[in-house]
Amino acid sequence: MRAAPTVFLIDDDRDLRKAMQQTLELAGFTVSPFASAAEALGELTADFAGVVISDIRMPGMDGLTLFRKVLALDPDLPMILVTGHGDIPMAVQAIQDGAYDFIAKPFAADRLVQSARRAEEKRRLVMEIRALRRTAEAASEGLPLIGQTPAMERLRQTLKHIADTDVDVLVAGETGSGKEVVATLLHHWSRRRSGNFVALNCGALPETVIESELFGHEPGAFTGAVKKRIGRIEHASGGTLFLDEIEAMPPATQVKMLRVLEAREITPLGTNLTRPVDIRVVAAAKVDLGDPAERGDFREDLFYRLNVVTLSIPPLRERRDDIPLLFSHFLARAAERFGRDVPAIPSAVRDHLAAHSWPGNVRELSHFAERVALGVEGTLGAAAAAPVSGGATLPERLERYEANILKEALTAHRGDVRETLRALGIPRKTFYDKLQRHGINRTDYVKERGPA
Ligand SMILES: Nc1ncnc2c1ncn2[C@@H]1O[C@H](COP(=O)(O)OP(=O)(O)OP(=O)(O)O)[C@@H](O)[C@H]1O
Ligand SMILES: [Mg+2]
């Protein structure tokens, strides 16, 4: 739940300050009273999630000077000025300069509360948009692991925990579930990030090549080995070695790999000399290597050596609540890439999102989003193609983004309030406020259950 809204209240007049504090507290605000502007300013930060209410005439720093300083700190911080008789022209000027409101003394308690409430609502929206923007920026930094379902939250927590240890990690998950994303994060969240992230697909290389790729070779080690070659493992020294499709590693290579993992040294082909390597190994498997039936000829001892920490990424169908979020992300990204406007989501697309089992997991979903962005999926009516990115300001785009997330969550949960709230993780009141603001009618989504 959201904490009580906060007010910084500044007035040098002790009685008036007390009276206003009481009024605001009765209305549900948490009030920090200050007798001087300087004191209040000392405690204000740009991310202050509340409202500032200040008298204008005060000894020391006056309210207008405080206002200018607050403005410099954060132009979106709402400030309400309390003015005496002669100050109204000054207060009007302050409004033009961006103050939120002024209240002329004497005033009714209600007038103060109304103004504070509206200012607080405005501040809350600003803070929400900032939070959204930060999320969007984090996502655009290229290392997203999107997902808010408990399974994904847990995965992210574990990742953070172990990323900066040198422990080897086995990442298990179906195709397209995000194994490579996880491996990349393990690298980027560790102090090895300054070293190389070397990915090797054990299933894609012919058996004859894989060993020289991995271990390197000396000149003349075999026919065609003209020059010395540094292997991938050595190249990854100081960084991370990502062994993708480890289940496809040829048995002979597995034996050598086990030795590398245990001794942390390599022996390039064509030499008996060993060289130490400082690597962290992240391996990815599509099958459950712990299950003898699925393991095939994958060595059990290598499995146990890799299995110090296993991160299992659940398939998308087992975390359906993440689908709307992922889809919005991919849709926005695809639209940007194709230089198109982000389309509203046609109902046929919504139905598909909710009904499909996504065997190709997140990758399949991202490809689907690309087709939707190109308009080749679902029917994009004129109304549906309302522009989001074209010419719109960032706050406008974020507004649309938020509206889309709400619609998708409602779609995914067939308008069920409890489930939608749980998926979105916001308080009920906030949810209804947002629906109203975006003109979304929840009952429209309940009807989509279709004929019984
Ligand atoms: N949680 C996620 N958030 C954002 N993007 C994701 C997420 N999971 C996967 N993706 C994206 O989906 C695509 C597939 O992910 P990735 O390549 O990591 O899957 P994989 O498990 O390695 O698949 P494969 O087994 O087929 O190699 C990538 O484009 C990746 O960026
Ligand atoms: Mg992969």
UniProtKB/TrEMBL annotation:
Alphabetic keyword roster: Activator, ATP-binding, DNA-binding, Nucleotide-binding, Phosphoprotein, Plasmid, Transcription, Transcription regulation, Two-component regulatory system
Species per Swiss-Prot/TrEMBL record: Sinorhizobium medicae (strain WSM419)
Protein name: C4-dicarboxylate transport transcriptional regulatory protein DctD
Gene3D superfamilies named among the record's database cross-references: 1.10.8.60, 3.40.50.2300, Homeodomain-like, P-loop containing nucleotide triphosphate hydrolases
Superkingdom classification of source: Bacteria
GO biological process: phosphorelay signal transduction system; regulation of DNA-templated transcription
Single annotated GO MF: sequence-specific DNA binding
Annotated Response regulatory domain residues: 6-120
Domain (Sigma-54 factor interaction) ranges: 145-374
Entry-annotated residues carrying 4-aspartylphosphate: D55
Record's function text: Member of the two-component regulatory system DctB/DctD involved in the transport of C4-dicarboxylates. When activated by DctB acts in conjunction with sigma-54 to activate the transcription of dctA.
